[in-house]
Specification:
Blueprint lengths: L1 H33 L1 E3 L5 E3 L2 H4 L3 E10 L5 H11 L4 E4 L1 H6 L1 H9 L3 E4 L12 H19 L5 E2 L11 H4 L2 E2 L14 H11 L5 E5 L3 H16 L2 E4 L1 H6 L1
Parallel strand pairs: 3-4, 3-8, 3-9, 4-5, 6-7
Antiparallel strand pairs: 1-2
Keywords: Hydrolase, Metal-binding, Signal
Protein name: Polysaccharide deacetylase family protein
Length: 238
Amino acid sequence: MKKAAKWLLCINLLAWTLLAVQVLTVNMEQRVAQNTVPVQNGDVQAKGEDADAVKKKVALTFDDGPDPDYTEMLLDGLKKRNVKATFFLLGKQAEAYPDIVKRMHKEGHMIGNHSYDHVNLANLSKTDAAKQIRMTSEAIHKITGEYPQYLRPPFGNEPPECSCAKNMMTVLWDVDPLDWCCGSSSTVIEKVVKAVEEDDIILLHDASESSVEAALGIIDALEKQGYEFVTVDEVIFE
């Protein structure tokens, strides 16, 4: 009888041990499930700041180019950082430096229309405003094979109603650090970093060394704050 009792006790202890192991296993699986998220390849990734963080989009835009001295310097910096930007080109500059425009297009940057001569389109007749826009779009199409779909009017002043403008979307900006009149790249960087918010469009130029340095500094600073740089269409439509 004593041996039977001992065996019964052993069996009961074994059963309780197995039950405890099952409970611990279930609890552990639940905790793992609560603290992981699936990814496309079937693996799991721990939840936390990196998993939950969603990149904040912002668009860098450059007016008045291409510039023969500084645009390619900017393109080199963008390529190194794997960043895409939007360039609003002057028609006369595009015609003068087609190889730079080809490079922009080849490297995946968006190209927009900034008039032919950088004139205030609002002060022109419909005919003259349409000519400024049309000549620039044709110059860009001749180089890239594509007509620009976005227009940034100089000074932010939209043209009088004309057929050319109706077929394009006007893009202005949210942050303007006035880099064109400020020779200090650090000042421009500080202005942008303090003012920028998610989905903002930043206005810059690619016609001076300080502006190029500021643009690349802005990228480096904002990426550390969780921003990613996209073309303007991704800010507008997504």
